[in-house]
Specification:
The complex is a heterodimer of chains A (283) and B (312). Chain A has a single domain, classed as 2-enoyl-CoA Hydratase, Chain A, domain 1. Helix content of chain A is 37%, strand content 14%. In chain A, strands 1-2-3-4-5-6-7 form a 7-stranded mixed sheet, with helices on both faces. In chain A, a hairpin with a 2-residue loop joins strand 2 and strand 3. Chain B is α/β, with parallel strands linked by helices and 312 residues long. In chain B, strand 2 and strand 3 form a beta hairpin. Chain B contains 14 helices and 8 strands. In chain B, helix 6 packs parallel to helix 8. Chain B has one domain: 2-enoyl-CoA Hydratase, Chain A, domain 1 (Alpha-Beta Complex). Chain B is globular, with a radius of gyration of 21 Å. Classes of the chains: A alpha/beta (283), B alpha/beta (312). The interface between A and B is large, with 65 and 56 residues.
């Protein structure tokens, strides 16, 4: 058909482009309503779906930009890196996974800490990044969190923690588990020094991080829809063979059961934290 | 594979040994350090030995908390209930007497037969168990009774109700309560030290571990399922994350290993109990004399330095 030569069949092309890749949706496609966004559209809306309100994950640096006053953030302990105390090797060496995570994320480990101000209120920020090995807590995350507690106590300002973690980092074995009591002891010291801790749980905060410092805030907040369970839904379903409710482990059910002070939509997080910082600053 | 690391150390050792001691003590210090490392390398448990410990730690005849309690403590009186919701039989608490002195005991409890196993939920506690533990800790602190904790759990129970009742928060608060105590505290891993459910009641001045107990961040099966995508690779996983007592001591996670009778604690529970009792007594003796504030400071300082960072 000569008449069709040179014609671009838009319909066919768009159909091909729309075919979903098996298994994984595009990161900018909303799992709530299926709407798709350009990266800048999502960034401008704090990575919340404008259509249905689904909260997409936020990387640590972007979170800090969302919360801290412009140019107020001064990072601390950025140089810390994980060692490989066990010489851990599963399908790949731990050192290789670490190097790859650093290249992919531009971060030294799964937490970014530093001094900041939120609406002019001074604080220390400790923000986790799920993109770095699932936000798992090993020696570096534990150490940086503890230093953030110490830094907050020394500066007599509250600590604001934003958690996002799959739990303890298996590749560091028992030393990863020891980061639970290590961070818990640090919060005890912070509290004894008169310091406050505001804990924000974001999707997901599970396992060892939920079972240690993230649960110990003077005030505990969560983002809407954030999974916050000690064991993940799959493990619970497999172990108990129970049919789990749709809101299993989500912030909404945790709020109902009394494990949270408030669920705060992302757009309200900065003013809410500022309000709390002001209240804790008036002692 | 002891080969490569050992060869490297040997090479450095022989080089150092042949050098004239121009740098005096500094060099001899280095020599000692390397020799020490070499010895530890030789003593390092093999993959097979690690797996033997995994099996012995879970042995169906292994003595459980109450088996030790009846052999070590006199006049044990069990305390039930978290005063809020329920009594969790997977974690027992109580008062007893050790050398004529009242102590508070808490520990995970597994069951011996199917009926008791179900009742004890295989030693997997609900948040109610950890809240009962916190209650026992406060009681100990109020009355100046030393606290002895026995750890033997595959992990905190991963169930729907457990999550609804706040498993994560309960584990966190149990650790915080232990970090706050003024009284002497001794924890002993007597079987499986499974993850958060174990460390929840193991934040102590002295942490002991029986020779064939294991203490780990995840079960070998769980680790294998995630990293190898095959739970059958549990042996490989255990060899990789090293949950045995020797490695835990080496990594500074525990303070002392308590010997077991030849073949494991189950071969002679009375002998195992005597060894454990001696371990507890020795540990208490070390920390008893300390001022309560100093004791708590040292306890927290111990956890402050846990972990290994890359040297920069």
């Amino acid at each position: 058909m000569s008449s069709g030569q040179g014609r671009v069949d838009v319909e066919v092309e768009s159909k091909r482009a729309d075919e979903p890749v098996q298994g994984k949706a595009h990161p900018n496609t909303c799992p709530g309503c299926g709407s798709h966004y350009r990266d800048d559209e999502l960034a401008n809306n704090l990575r919340v779906c404008p259509h249905c309100g689904h909260h997409f994950r936020v990387r640590a640096r972007e979170r800090i930009d969302q919360l801290a006053d412009p140019d107020s953030f001064v990072e601390e302990d950025a140089e810390l890196r994980s060692a490989d105390p066990l010489g851990f090797f599963d399908l790949r060496p731990y050192t290789e996974r670490l190097a790859e995570a650093e290249i992919d994320t531009g971060l030294g480990d799964a937490i970014v800490c530093g001094a900041a101000a939120i609406e002019g209120e001074g604080c220390r920020l400790a923000v986790m990044d799920f993109a770095f090995m699932g936000g798992s807590m090993g020696s570096v995350v534990g150490e940086k969190f503890v230093r953030a507690c110490e830094s907050a106590a020394a500066a007599r300002v509250p600590l604001v923690s934003v958690a996002a973690s799959g739990g303890a980092r298996m590749q560091e074995g028992i030393l990863a588990l020891m980061q639970l009591p290590k961070t818990v002891c640090a919060i005890e010291e912070l509290h004894e020094a008169g310091g406050a801790m505001l804990s924000v749980l974001t999707h997901p905060t599970t396992g060892g991080v939920l079972a240690s410092y993230a649960s110990l805030g003077d005030v505990v907040l969560a983002e809407p829809g954030a999974l916050m369970s000690f064991a993940g839904p799959r493990v619970v379903a497999q172990t108990t063979r129970e049919k789990l409710p749709d809101d299993f482990g989500l912030a909404e059910s945790n709020y109902r059961f009394g494990h949270l002070d408030a669920i705060v939509p992302r757009a309200d997080l900065r003013p809410t934290l500022a309000r709390l910082l002001r209240l804790f600053g008036k002692s | 594979m002891p080969g490569e690391a050992e060869m490297r150390l040997r090479a450095r050792l022989s080089k150092l040994a042949g050098m004239k001691l121009l740098q005096g003590t500094k060099l001899s210090g280095e020599l000692e350090r390397l020799q020490d490392q070499l010895e530890r390398l030789r003593a390092e448990p093999s993959a097979e030995e690690i797996w033997t410990s995994v099996e012995l730690a879970r042995h169906q005849d292994r003595p459980y908390t109450l088996d030790y309690v009846e052999r070590i403590l006199e006049d044990f009186f069990e305390l039930h209930g978290d005063r809020g919701r329920a009594d969790d039989p997977a974690l027992v608490t109580g008062l007893g007497s050790l050398d004529g002195r009242t102590v508070v005991l808490l520990g995970h409890q597994k069951g011996r037969d199917l009926k008791e196993r179900t009742k004890r939920n295989f030693g997997m506690a609900y948040p109610e168990g950890y809240r009962k533990a916190i209650r026992a800790m406060s009681l100990a602190d109020r009355h100046g009774f030393p606290l002895i904790a026995m750890i033997d759990t595959p992990g905190a129970y991963p169930g729907l109700a457990a999550e609804q009742h706040g498993q994560g928060g309960a584990i966190a608060r149990s650790q915080a309560a232990m970090a706050r105590l003024s009284v002497p505290t001794v924890a002993c891993v007597i079987g499986e030290g499974g993850s958060g459910g174990a460390v929840a009641v193991a934040v102590a001045d002295r942490v002991l571990m029986q020779q064939h107990a294991i203490y780990s961040v995840i079960s070998p099966e769980g680790c294998a399922a995630i990293l190898w995508r095959d739970a059958a690779e549990a042996r490989k996983a255990a060899a990789a994350f090293k949950p045995d007592a020797a490695h835990c001591l080496e990594l500074g996670v525990i303070d002392r290993i308590v010997a077991e009778p030849e073949g494991g604690a189950h071969t002679d529970p009375d002998a195992a109990a005597m060894l454990l009792e001696q371990g507890i007594r020795d540990a208490l003796e070390e920390i008893d004399a300390l001022d309560p504030v100093e004791r708590r400071r040292q306890r927290r300082a111990k956890y402050r330095v846990m972990g290994v960072l890359a040297s920069s």
